[in-house]
Amino acid sequence: MNIKINLPDELESILRERAAKAGIPIESFVIQAVAERLADSDDDENPASTSNFSQWLREWSSRFPKLDQPVDDSRESIYAGRGE
Length: 84
Prior knowledge:
By secondary structure, the chain is mostly helical. Helices cover 56% and strands 0% of the residues. Helix 1 (9-22) crosses helix 2.
């Protein structure tokens, strides 16, 4: 399959540089990069199928800010003022 893509000059230079650094033709480098990205996206969609769930979970949780104080997530605090 042939696909024509218009890349910004900056991306093209990065792509050429990395392909040269890897010592492979640019076409092979692009195919490899696309294949790796597609494989990564499959893992992101279904974390249970990953070989290392704990690593996925750490990476996922690192996207959220860390709190400096404890959080009261007790049932009493959640339902306070609701007449229970």
